[in-house]
Design a protein that fits this description.
heterodimer; A: mainly beta; 7-stranded mixed beta sheet; 4-stranded antiparallel beta sheet; B: mainly beta; 6-stranded mixed beta sheet; globular
Chain lengths: ~120, ~110
């Protein structure tokens, strides 16, 4: 099973709302990732969790707050977003964060289409 | 940091034709990953390559890991309408805990 699940599939929120995106994997992977993707562009890395600890934050604004409750779950808490934050948000996982494994393989979830009004 | 380039940027082909696209880098990669992405969906892993010279097939798809470890190609034989999408190459960075992505090749299949 190489499945990564994400909920919700679609989300519309106002700039004053608080919402959360959820991601789950049961492959025993120890690295989990959040990406933001705009149309016709490759995924843009936001955060990396390695062994449930935040290892990379790509200078993401604090209105995005990641959380890794356990090795299978990854959340992204959203607060006071801007319309330019509208995008496809992708979760991914891999065996371990690639700094330690140059043969690592990454699997993506189906994404959450976020629209900020 | 490491970068990946993909060519062509986009291509329009007739249904039934074969397709070839490639991915290059100025630095060595130890793994090459090929993904297909449909609009509004997450990238789906098509083929993973782990060894220089490796040639791997997945149905009508064939990918090769270049001998120099600086390139890879993906071929699709007898294209069908559902092959439409964006194809990304990627690989784990040699320098950090992230993956590097190419800009993608957009494939359109004309009936």
């Amino acid at each position: 099973d190489t499945e990564v699940t994400q909920t919700p599939k679609h989300l519309v929120m106002g700039m004053t709302n608080k919402k959360s995106l959820k991601c789950e994997q049961h492959m025993g992977h120890r690295a989990m990732y959040w990406y933001k993707q705009k149309a016709k562009k490759p995924p843009e890395l936001m955060f990396v969790y390695s062994y449930e600890k935040l290892s990379i934050n790509e200078s993401v604004p604090s209105r995005f707050s990641p959380e890794c409750p356990n090795s299978s779950l990854l959340n992204l808490h959203l607060h006071a977003l801007q319309p330019e934050d509208s995008a496809l948000y992708l979760c991914a996982s891999s065996q371990e964060a690639s700094g330690g494994n140059l043969h690592d393989t990454q699997y993506f979830g189906p994404g959450t289409r976020l629209t900020v009004l | 940091g490491q970068q990946l380039n993909q060519s062509p940027q986009s291509m329009f082909i007739q249904e039934g034709e074969d397709v070839s696209m490639n991915c290059t880098s100025s630095s060595i990669f130890n793994t090459w990953l090929w993904y297909k992405q449909d609009p509004g969906e997450g990238p789906v892993l098509l083929i993973a390559l782990y060894k220089a010279g490796e040639l791997t097939s997945n149905g009508r798809l064939t990918a090769q890991f270049g001998i120099t470890r600086k390139d890879s190609f993906l071929n699709i034989s007898a294209s069908i309408p559902s092959d439409v999408g964006i194809y990304f190459c990627a690989g784990p960075s040699n320098y950090g805990q992230n993956f590097v992505f190419g800009p993608g090749t957009r494939l359109s299949v004309l009936p």
